Amino acid sequence: MKILHITASYKPAYIYGGPIQSVGKLCEAIAIEAQQNGIDLEVFTTTANGSTELDVDTSKPEDVNGVLVTYFKRWTKDHSHFAPELLLQVWKVLRAERNNQKIVVHIHAWWNLVSVLSCLIAKWHGVPVLLSPRGMLTGYSQNNRHSFFKSLIHKTVGARLLKYCHIHATSRQEVKDINLIFTPKTISVIPNLVQTSEKQSSYTNLNSANEPNLFRIIFLSRIEEKKGLELLFDALAHLTTSWALTIAGSGEEKYVAGLQQKATQLKVDHQIKWIGQVSNQDKFNLLAQQDLLVLTSYNENFANVVIESLSVGTPVLISDQVGLSDYVQEKDFGWVTSLDPAAVQKSLSSAADDHNKRNLIRQEAPIIIENDFNDARLVQKYLNLYQNITN
């Protein structure tokens, strides 16, 4: 079987957050299984790295953590990512392979010219397509940021191409969002493969002896409007518990400055520490030092950081619009809130007061996460899905 992964951005473009981690982790896990299962795996991507370009060799494929990756120069920046050489290579590969009954194109994300035009080429050659929207096929995504461009794509070719695709969703929440937009040919739910901590941290050792009553909260993600930080700030302004918030992540300077101004207006700026983007090596230690991870997003198809946090035993407080909210509720790994400042404030108070629940999560979550998000088990589900599509 040949699997061609197509994505507008790939490692090491970590500026794009969770999707980069998810796609890379999946491809690396498939690569491990490739030889044993007779799989030919390739990744086509661009040099996208936000407003800059990755410093990579575009003249030949590169081995990136065991995965054969070809980077192509893009002619346009975010969010169109127009890369003619990539599209030409997709055409050549699919033309040569179209009589092979065991080939599938796996496209990641939507609303960019790499994804849409690659899908069009695959449809032209009659090659099956698996599309992982990565949160791009929701009402929130359609109507926020570049909505005119998205509407134009959808009305011209997007709607017809989507009906050609088999859809991969990462959560039941994402399935609901997708079904509100269109009815897929097929839709399957498989969670993301997520990098988790290799060691379990001790909750008692991480609390500061100097400030044992300080409630430590962390936000670790891209800093953008959909993450609901304004909502969180409004809730924290009315929280009576002694608290400190660490914000780890990067975003557009103008938007971050606006958030900092809002924090000053609410008189909570002295309780917030902005530390910027954190490396993969450091984030687990940072998460383990906190009492609670918060993610009050307006829309998230999955949210890798929830699993990352629970893998070190740090409880979570997330909105009911986060894809993993049903999992958190089922396992009782934290608190799920509506998108209302009063409700968020109430959940924060509950989390701060319930030491027993937080201690129990600290002890139990890492073991359960290791089992539920086992790479080998999840990658087999993906391989079975590819087989079903080619059949």
From TrEMBL:
Residue stretches making up the Glycosyl transferase family domain: 215-365
SUPFAM superfamilies from the UniProt entry: UDP-Glycosyltransferase/glycogen phosphorylase
Record carries keyword Transferase: yes
Molecular function GO terms recorded: glycosyltransferase activity
Domain of life of the native organism: Bacteria
Glycosyltransferase subfamily 4-like N-terminal domain mapped to chain residues: 27-197
InterPro entries from the UniProt entry: Glyco_trans_1, Glyco_trans_4-like_N
Entry keyword set: Transferase
Protein name, entry field: Glycosyltransferase
Originating species: Pedobacter petrophilus
Source taxonomy: Bacteria, Pseudomonadati, Bacteroidota, Sphingobacteriia, Sphingobacteriales
